[in-house]
Amino acid sequence: MNRFTYIRPKSLEDTFEYLNPTWGETYILAGGTDLLPLIKADLISPKYVVSLQSIPEMDTITYLPGKGLRIGMQTKLSALVENPIIKEKYSALVQAAASTGTPQLRNMGTIGGNLLHRPKCIYFRGGFDCLLSHNNGNCSAADGQNYQHCIFGDCQCCAVHPSDTAVALQALGASVSIVGRKSQRTVALKDFFTLPQRNRPQENILNADELITEISVPDISAKTKQIFVKVKEHGSWDSALASIAMVIVPDTTMIEYASVVLGGVAPIPWRSESVEFTVIGTDINPIIATKAGDAAIEGAKPLRYNTYKIDLVKNLVTQTLLELAQPTDGKTVIA
Amino acid sequence: MEKKIVKVTNSFEANNQIEMMAEVPLQVPPAWDKDVQLNIVGKKTPRVGGYEIVSGTAQYTTDIFLPNMIIARTLRSPYPMARIKSIDTSKAKELKGVRYILTHENAPDITWQGYGKLLDKLLRYAGDEVAVIAAENEYIAEEALSLIKVEYEQLPFVVTAQDAIKPDAPKVRGDGEGNIMYGKPSVYERGNVEKGFAEAQAIFEGTFRTSAIVHCTTEIHNSVAQWGGDKLTVWDSTQHIYGVQSDLAKFFKIPINKVRVIKQYMGGGFGGKYYTHKNTLFATIIARETGRPVKTINSRKEEFLSTGYRPNSVQKVKLGAKKDGTLTAISLDNHGTVGVFPMDVAAAGACYASVYKCPHVKTSDTSILINAGPAHPHRAPNHPQGTFALDSAMDMLAEKIGIDPLQFRIKNYTDIEQTNNLPYTTKFLKECYEEGSKRIDWERRNKKPGSGKGTKKRGIGVGSIYWGGSGGPPAYVIIKMNPDATATLLCGTQDLGTGTRTILAMTAAEVLGLHVNDITVVIGDTESGVYSPGSGGSYTAPSVIPAVRTAAVEVKKGLLEIAASLLQTQPENLELQSGKIILKSIPEKSITLKEVAAKMGNNMIIGHGAREENPSGYAINTFGAQFAEVEVDTKTGNVKVIKVVSVHDSGRIINPTTAENQVIGGIIQGIGMSLSEQQLMDIKTGTILNPSFGEYHLPTVDSIPEIEIAFVNPSDVKANNVGLKGLGEPPIVGVSAAIANAVYNAIGKRIYELPITPDKVLKELG
């Protein structure tokens, strides 16, 4: 671990003083549950660590009917899970946040930090030759112990994106507000995440001198059904072997709208347009659900030890669709 | 206490026979049989020291802070095989607060495990010790490590069994010796397996695999060493204070009376702290060189890399039986990788030879050295992996023959230890099967495996437990009666966290008519205690408790004699009851223990106890049966354990509270081994991929099922004067077998490899 300067500004304006367009100099500390392990493992060596924890009002949650939900990026995952309006309107997000880490990690971890969580790939974390790390090498997982790795993405890195909330938020059509010293923009999550690229130690479009301030989620109609399901290897404190967030709007006889995002299968939350396409305009029945399962794995390229993910994703899509099609409120967790 | 000298042979870790000379009691009190009326022993009793543990006031070795103490951290090799070409510590030395740097250049010439040096120029695994830095605090020490410049010459390495046994494979030891330990497999044979298989009417063959399992003790391996003149005091997180004492005396060529080893509280050992580790020696050396107390500590990552693991196993199993279910032959060809400087070997064969009655058995175990950290004994070494494969194979053969798996086991029951033809002192395995099958409701299981409906399928399976745990001499105890009728018990045993103090106090209190709180138990200190064996091999209770009773009986004798003179009668007319001594003929006539003790003042009664020898002509073993009910999600591959029933023959149970704790802990460890724990090695670089709790998956709270526990053997009177046997290790032995068999019963597909993770289940389901 290197020595660094720790700064705790009182306002966003002060924060920008320390943000630097050069990668790798300044790191933002939101909850610290990912940043500190990265520093301790020498995977990053910041000059400055800038904490947002003293900036007021970055953890507010507001909901306006018709406008939707706004979540301050410093909102703790535990606060999000317990928020009554989110529980009522955005159950998939609650399911995703509640399945993340452990109670201790959720008490410290923030929603903004969770979206920016670096991959948990054991090769990246272990300091091996890796596209994502400072050694900028070739993926060690490609022909290594890769049973946890990706089946989609087709890039030079086979890590999977670690964030459960990103999967749910993207399915819910969320966007992030990005603020820089002189800039401000809003980007839909589907355009926010990027496949790993060489010399860019980040799985998103954020520039080194920008930060996320807020996440907004559009309002949800009363007939919308949503669900997040995560398959893990064991108990708690485990990342997804595969996960799915599904949001559908049923009309009287058929599905009018569907948004399907898979987790644990690609270096980014993986939108499955083929599943959406299969489902829209149909009534969900076992045949459609099976078809959707098959559609989900179109184009998948498993690695040596993760062919099981093909069956897993297929089953997960089929089962989740059938579950969601039940005439319930769609809030039941099935895994 | 009158004593005699005998030659004793004890079975330790179920398979090693150790012969020693021992001074044992000439006579011991008659054994407590199953009908004996006891007031304290056998009753649920809160753990002595429990308050200290949960309130954070118990002092673990990590909590020892001596005035002037410095902290040492270790630099470890990043490569699986390398030679240090040069090491430059000048930058580290300059860092403010650094007090001492130990490298191979200035370390004493201590040979490690016969072929290495304490700090060696040749580094044999990724994690091998390169240098140790002591500084004013751990952060300075850690920063200083990063300032050491080492030039490594990387050498060819092997990290898999296949690579290690190739004729031209790099030699892991680096000294010309090959990579097969002892140069050949360890073979056990009785009868003629070829003949046995020829007689068989059904044969099952299969290859089972288990992964390397890390101990993951809550408390890291750590030591504090302090020199006062020529006297060394070491606080060590160890399961064997006398073992560390004699090792330190040997390594540093100092008399044993100049070495004191202390272990008061311990955050888990599970076998990984049975033997002396290098960190204890580092602390000792740096303390001597600096004149300051030194504490060595590990990071969690270092714990994963260098402090031990249960070796993996690849077990090629073949079983043969007649149509009526009589086993005719068992053969096993097993190998496991044990790293370098191993303290444990591949020996899964031990249970194949003994659990089931079979005339023709051949087992072969090969321990293969690879460039990985040392294997260390892990709770019931080899038996959980052996039982997993053997009992999985038993179920497969039972199905072939068309016999109920439980009936198949009972059909091949034996009351004789087949490796030496001795009868067991007691064997209540049949009772364990009966009680367990009742509690799990065995008849609920799928008569046809995999026949359950729906996507979540349930199944039930069984695994047998066979283990050692006889205990034996030498183990000594002294009990001192204080002037207020309280007592102090001195013993050289140590508490791994199992509740040893509690059972010692209970046994003494039982005999002396006192309360548990009236007995102060002094253990975990070589100086104030008297020898007791290391806490391994399920050895502590059955070694020490009979000696406690012998010592207490001697104190009781003294008390009765004094009471007799005070009451003007003969001791045989008296009886010691709770807190008082009464005249048997006139129960109203009594004298309290406090009065007796007060009459004596500081004229102390001292009782001496020594563990009697084990009976000759018998085998002493522990047994049990474990039943698991699982639910397999056939769509995700997740296995959830719903319930485990664990029934044990460990003889008399002293404290059901701490005994059940042991069983629960063993089951949870077994669930981890069965479903989620595995050490992952990167073959290309020879390094461990998951040295953290984030990626090495221990069971978490929601992986823990309903657990039901029963003990079925009230007393093993032939084994020792208390009638108890060991319990520490048995609870992990049958868990993986029970779970694997339950999974098979649920889905009708056999998973041949642990851990049973979703990928393997989905692959089998296809």
Briefly, what is this?
The complex is a heterodimer of chains A (335) and B (766). Chain A is an alpha+beta fold.
Mean pLDDT of chain B: 96
Care to count the β-strands of chain A? 12
**What does the largest sheet of chain B look like?**
7 strands, mixed
Counting DSSP E segments of at least 2 residues, the number of strands of chain B comes to 36
Query: Mind telling me the C-alpha Rg of chain A?
Result: 19 Å
Helix percent band of chain A: 25-40%
N-to-C SSE series of chain A?
Answer: EHEHEEEHHHHHHHEEHEEEEEHHH
Head-to-tail CA distance between termini of chain A: 39 Å
Structural class of the secondary elements of chain A?
alpha+beta
What is the oligomer described by this structure? Answer: heterodimer
What proportion strand of chain B?
Answer: 25-35%
Major interchain interface with per-chain residue totals: A-B, 35 and 38 residues
Helix percent band of chain B: 25-40%
User: Termini separation of chain B (Å)?
Assistant: 69 Å
Query: Outline of chain B, from the CA principal axes?
Result: globular
Q: Can you list the strand order of the major beta sheet of chain B?
A: 5-9-3-17-14-15-16
Chain-averaged pLDDT of chain A: 93
Number of helices of chain B: 19
- The best one-word shape of chain A is globular
Question: Describe it for me?
Answer:
The complex is a heterodimer of chains A (335) and B (766). Helix content of chain A is 29%, strand content 20%. Chain A has helices spanning 12-18, 35-40, 77-82, 84-89, 91-98, 103-108, 111-115, 122-125, 164-171, 189-192, 273-279, 286-296, 308-325; strands spanning 5-7, 26-29, 48-51, 61-64, 68-72, 175-180, 184-188, 210-217, 225-231, 242-250, 255-263, 270-271. In chain A, a hairpin with a 6-residue loop joins β11 (255-263) and β12. In chain A, α12 runs antiparallel to α13 (308-325). Mean pLDDT of chain A is 93; it is low at 329-335. Chain B is α+β, with helices and mostly antiparallel strands. In chain B, the strands form eleven sheets. Chain B has a seven-stranded mixed beta sheet. In chain B, α10 (383-401) packs parallel to α18, α13 packs parallel to α14 (540-566) and α16 (656-675) crosses α18. At the A-B interface, α8 and α13 of A face α3 and α19 of B.
